[in-house]
Design brief:
This protein has about 150 residues and is an all-alpha fold. It has one domain. It contains 5 helices and no strands. Helix 2 packs antiparallel against helix 3.
């Protein structure tokens, strides 16, 4: 296990969550679902980098699962959306951990499962917490931010 990749992943996900909270992205309908939809693209890039087009086809096929999670979350109400994206993140963390048991993508760094898996897992747990504690109102539909001081 690469402890450095794990720790850097924890730092990155903490910064992402803080940024989403402070910039009011967390209040929008699209922020977390689009973040989840971006996860498969890393594996696409790794496959292209490794000139592994057989794996690229497999990665695209698996990527559609996470795109579906994201699409359903975008169409759902606030709490359900957070649960769906949280579930997708946890599922992606499991995918990261077992990825090389399913198939090997040549361009994927050896430290990637610990790095990405820690981000996915912590973000998923946070989104379950968010769903449990968030008010039961809809997301903001407009792009207005609260007035600045």
């Amino acid at each position: 296990m690469n402890i450095y990749a794990l720790l850097i992943g924890i730092i990155v996900v903490t910064l992402v969550i803080v940024y989403f909270k402070r910039s009011y992205l967390e209040r929008t309908q699209l922020a977390y679902p689009l973040l989840l939809a971006s996860f498969p693209f890393y594996y696409f890039v790794f496959a292209i980098y490794g000139n592994d087009f057989d794996s690229l086809y497999k990665e695209i096929t698996v990527g559609f699962i996470f795109f579906a999670f994201s699409l359903v979350a975008i169409k759902s109400k606030r709490k359900l959306s957070a649960v769906i994206v949280g579930s997708g993140c946890i599922f992606h963390a499991i995918y990261d951990i077992y990825h090389n048991h399913l198939f090997v993508t040549l361009g994927t760094p050896s430290w990637w499962p610990e790095f990405c898996g820690s981000i996915d897992f912590i973000l998923g747990i946070y989104l379950f917490y968010f769903a449990a504690t968030a008010p039961n109102k809809s997301f903001k539909k407009n792009r207005e931010h609260p007035p600045t001081k």
